[in-house]
Amino acid sequence: MLKIENVCKTFNQGTVNEKKALIDLNLHIKPGDFITVIGGNGAGKSTMLNAVAGVYSVESGSIFLDGQDITRQPEHQRARLLGRVFQDPMMGTAANMGIEENLAMAFRRGKRRGLSWGITKEERESYVEKLKSLDLGLENRLKSKVGLLSGGQRQALTLLMATLQKPKVLLLDEHTAALDPKTARKVLELTQEIVTRDSLTTLMITHNMKDAIRIGNRLIMMYEGRIIYDVEGEEKKNLKTADLLAKFGTASGGEFANDRMMLS
After folding, report:
1. Quick one: CA dihedral 91, 203, 47, 7, positive or negative?
2. Alpha helices in the chain (DSSP H)
C-alpha cells in the first residue's frame, strides 16, 4: 500500500544548522498494516509522516502509494488519499464552523463540488450515527462550534473526519500526546475500533512504549533518520518494554534521547 524507498531529507542544507532528518529510509507497508512508530526526539518520525503527506519535499528517493509514484505530488493532491490526525487537537478542524459542517467538508474530500444544498437530510442522519459511535454525546450537538469542544472531543471528531472517506493510509502523529490519560485511552480505543472495522492501513507515532507494543500488528523504531528495528506478528506480541529500551540503548550508545520514553 505504501512504499518509501531510499528517501533522504535534510533541513538547512549547506548551513551550520544542517540536520539530516531521513537517511536512505526504506519502509514497505502492506494493506491493512497497523504500524506503531517509536523513537526519541529528532529520530525522524514526524518528518517521515510529513514526507508521506507531502508537507516536506525530499532530496532523493521515492514514495509510492497504492502503486502510484507520489514523490513529487503536492500536498493538496495527496490529501484526497490520506487521513491525518495531529498532536494538537486544534489542528484538523475548523474551529468557527459547526460539527456537522466539519463533517460535511470531510465527507466531500476529493469529490466534485456543485451548487446543491449543503447538507442533505440523509447526510445529517449518517453523521448522527457516526457521532453516536464515539459515545461522547456529540450527536446532539451538530450545530455546536467545534472550537467549544474539549480537546478529547475535538480529537475524536478529527479522527472521525480523517476516516469518513476511507483513506489509503491513515497518519497519526502522536494524536493522544496532548490529552489527559483518561481521554487519551478513550481516543486510542476509538482509533483501534475504527482502524479494525475499516481495515485501514495506519502509521501511528507514539512515545508510549506500552501502547506501541499493545496496539497494531507491527512496530518500528527509528533513530537518527533510520529504521533500526522492525518487528511484527507474534514476535511483537511477546515484546516487553525492557526489550525496546535495550534496543534503543544499543542504538544510541546508552544515551536516551528522550526521557519520556523511559517514563512512559
Report:
1. negative
2. 45-53, 75-78, 99-107, 121-132, 151-164, 181-198, 209-214, 233-237, 241-251, 259-263
Listing from the earlier edge strand, what are the strands of the sheet with 68-69? 19-29, 2-11, 60-65, 68-69
Tell me the per-residue pLDDT of 44-80, one tens digit each, with 9 for 90 and over: 899 999 999 999 999 999 999 998 999 999 988 888 8
- Whole-number Å distance between alpha carbons of 53 and 83: 9
pTM of the complete model: 0.86
Residues 6+ apart with CB under 8 A from 81: 65, 66, 70, 110, 167, 168, 169
88: alpha, beta or left? (left if phi > 0; alpha if psi -120 to 50): beta
Spatial distance between the Cα atoms of 209 and 245, rounded to a whole number of angstroms: 9
Distance CA 152, CA 145 (A): 15
Mean pLDDT per 10-residue segment, the chain (264 residues): 93 87 94 92 90 92 92 89 88 87 82 62 85 84 88 88 89 88 87 91 91 92 90 88 81 55 48
Amino acid, res. 243: D
Q: Is the alpha carbon torsion for 207, 212, 216, 221 positive or negative?
A: positive
> How far is the C-alpha of 2 from the C-alpha of 128, rounded, in Å?
33
Distance (Å, rounded) from C-alpha 35 to C-alpha 88?
A: 21
